[in-house]
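Anyone able to model this chain together with phosphoric acid mono(formamide)ester?
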Amino acid sequence: MSHLEMSTKHLLGIKYITKDDIDLIFQTADNFKEVINRPIKKVPTLRDITVANLFFENSTRTRISFELAEKRLSADTVNFSASSSSVKKGETLLDTVNNILSMKVDMIVMRHPAPGAHLFLSKHIDVNIINAGDGTHEHPTQALLDGYSMREKVGEIEGKKVVIVGDILHSRVALSNIFCLKKLGAEVMVCGPPTLIPKHIKKLGVHVSYDINEALKWCDIANVLRIQLERQNINYIPSLREYSMYYGIKKSMLDRLDKDIIIMHPGPINRGVELSSDVADSEHSIILDQVENGVAVRMAVLYLLAGKRNLAKT
Ligand code: CP
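re: yes, here you go
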């Protein structure tokens, strides 16, 4: 049975939360999913809370999803993007955040390019911090919404076989998904070109395959990642065309399997690279369900952490 509150004050990464925390987030998200499908999609739960959304990196889905989650919970929100802020004038992260907090903000949602930026902040400030992505490290709410969407589709995740395909080396989604799925008892495989698979990844208890057809045959669910060209300062792959030839998932590959598998992608998709359009838009794909579930899962995280906002640092 799950506990009734989170074990931590912050959501810095899936590494730092327990299976009970994940189960509690999923159960709470079930209630909020029902709320956001009502004609009036709003509850007064966080009406005395102000949340600052600090985005030091680009985002479409995560930023809009958090903002909608906050509005559905009746929180006040302020939005910050680094490109139009005084960060450009040389202000430090801590000074920026402390200035925003002095305006009586209760919670921070932050995306930052530096791995560990959230952990650093958590040692210096007293409000709840939710990691919306820290460089190549973790993207915990993406892993939670991925796990929630899998659970919605297949029931129990324990014992299910999930392959994460593509640029594992640069992906915060991959690491958070591995931590989340292992805590929930799934079998996890990573598949991609050897240059994009970290050397010591097996230490996390995952299988490794360099053959996409073998991986698809093995799995129940394929979570397919974007090739992150913006994080690659050397050529890990000869070209996107060659990547697509060897690792891109096409409809004919799914048709050859003797079972139906589920296709997921955190977005944004490079159509024709990781997935052909007839796979991304097929009945196998739950990509838009993932986006829908993101709002309910983020409402759950905000709600549960807000309940811990006056407690001592954890
Ligand atoms: N999945 C995800 O993090 O997408 P955005 O970069 O658009 O937020």
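The longest helix spans residues 287-306.
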